[in-house]
Amino acid sequence: MSSVAHDAEHDHDHAHDHPTGWRRWLWATNHKDIGTLYLTFSFTMFLIGGIMALLIRVELFEPGLQIMRPEFFNQLVTSHGLFMIFGAIMPAFVGFANWMIPLQIGASDMAFARMNNFSFWLLPIASALLVLAYFVPGGSTAAGWTLYAPLSTQMGPGMDLGIFAIHLMGASSIMGAINIVVTILNLRAPGMTLMKMPMFVWTWLITAYLLIAVMPVLAGAITMLLFDRHFGTSFFNAAGGGDPIMYQHIFWFFGHPEVYIMILPAFGIISEVIPAFSRKPLFGYSSMVYATGSIAILSFIVWAHHMFATGMPVTGQLFFMYATMLIAVPTGVKVFNWTATMWRGALTFETPMLFAIGFLFVFTIGGFTGLILSMAPLDIPMHGTYYVVAHFHYVLVAGSLFALFAGWYYWAPKWTGRMYNETRGKIHFWVSLISFNVTFFPMHFLGLAGMPRRYADYPAQFTDFNQLATYGAFAFGLAQVYFLFLIALPTYRGSKEAGLVEAADKPWEGAQGLEWTLPSPAPFHTFETPPKVE
Questions:
Q1: The overall pTM is greater than 0.90
Q2: Would you report the helix, strand and coil content of the chain in percent, each value rounded to 5?
Q3: Set 79, 172, 374, 435: catalytic member
């Protein structure tokens, strides 16, 4: 009897206890702490991936080899892709999910708190393996982030470390996704039906299903690579009856839904920010939900548009071409709905709204270049050129990253209890937007003129655009360092010299949602009694 009473008393203490010091972070089970861990980790990976990008740009500043061997250049290109996708963009969105989903649906925490902790701590281990790969004989993998066979079957031990790291990151993603699905389906506040959920929650629910569906496919592809490398199989070796093109089919069956895994949560953030600063409800809420679901379903039938140059039969080319064009329809629905939300709204242009509008403008350019690449006759000559590099950076940097910044500026007052410095935020936006376009817009012209990707050297006629891109890349990198030291850190620390004011419970006049009913900063334990949603 006494032990039961003692346990109950202990549990009660634990529920209201605030762990401190390193234990608070190492054993974190509170969704806010884990969200902060994800965001800190992802920004660190973003900076490491950014340094790799700048080294690539320095090498490409002039024709000829400047500072590195082509093998090392290709290792950097590969690592840059892996770090940015699996280390920066995906964990950043999971950080937002951990922070915001319980607050937006009125839950006290995520469904599986300890699994939440475990899924985070797999990530630093995996990224350490990717860094360690540089210090083994032969260096890191240089097969491109797609790890195409037969290149990847011939790499040194760094490739094995890469395979192990991707397995760990995949396991982390699957656990995080299961947690998100169970939380959203089971822990919503009374009265919050599915069609009353904020768009950010909807986009994450659909994204989590995508993750559960495709991460095992990636695991299968890299496990087959591992077996080809060490256990005598010939999945991708034509001499043994295998097919290297089969690797591309399996990889892109994962890889294309992965593109939407990295953009759907961004759509969710933009769908929160634009209505708040337009002082209007989101236009066409239900059509946004259906459009998100449509994008997710269609993403499974377009994978081979990455493979038009592999000698596909013309009927296959036509199928994947038309299926890809079809995805532009629900994406267009979203863009028109966001535009209609702003139409005749009482707009103000604080930093979150600037990033959201910047996202709309630049992401649309990325969408149009995607539509161009969906056409097989155009894709075949442009495949493997800088046109493709320009396209996916417009989608991932101007899409995912700008949306992440919009979300940070929008919700940081709720997280920290302090308003960031608005002037500095606007400087960050304008320098980022301009330098991003200076970096990546010329790459469209380089690609159309025939400059191939993943080469450390190039003919002299491409010099001017490459130099312009390098200047832009350094300006963009400095803008993110500026964000870290002059905006983010002072906001978290509450530095006096930054002149920061305390945030109101609802700092944005037009903001809607349960998260704005809480005090700022959001307390350690929220919604211990679920709110009622009318």
A1: yes
A2: 75, 0, 25
A3: 172
Each residue's pLDDT tens digit, 311-358:
999 999 999 999 999 999 999 999 999 999 999 999 999 999 999 999
| Catalytic (active site) residue 233 | no
Cis amide leading into 150 (omega within 30): yes
452 has which bridge partners? 385
| Active-site residue, 145 included | yes
Residue bearing tokens 């010299």: 497
Annotated catalytic residue 258: yes
Let me know if 286 is a catalytic residue.
Answer: no
Q: Same domain for 228 and 373?
A: no
Counted domains in the chain: 2
The answer to whether residue 275 is domain-embedded is no
Active-site option among 38, 145, 410, 508: 145
Residue in the block written with tokens 């937007």: 433
Averaged pLDDT, 491-508: 84
Eight-class DSSP state of 452: B
Torsion of CA 53, 56, 57, 61, to 10 degrees: 170
> Do 302 and 449 sit in the same domain of this protein?
yes
341 and 449 belong to one structural domain = yes
Amino acid at position 475, single letter: A
CATH number of the domain bearing residue 366: 1.20.210.10
Evaluate whether residue 5 is within a structural domain: no
In angstroms, the CA 138 to CA 417 distance is 49
Confirm whether 526 is domain-assigned: no
- 518 DSSP 8-state letter: S
The question of whether 146 is a catalytic residue gets the answer no
Within a domain: 46: yes
**Distance between CA atoms of 5 and 269, rounded to whole angstroms?**
45
Could you give the CA distance from residue 10 to residue 174 in angstroms, rounded to a whole number? 32
Range of the domain at 432: 280-520
Task: Indicate the DSSP class of residue 516.
Answer: G
Do 42 and 127 have their domain in common? yes
Q: 11 an active-site residue?
A: no
305 is catalytic: yes
Is 42 an annotated catalytic residue? no
Verify that 61 and 112 share a domain, yes or no: yes
Q: Are residues 60 and 206 in the same domain?
A: yes
pLDDT tens readout for residues 378-402: 999 999 999 999 999 999 999 999 9
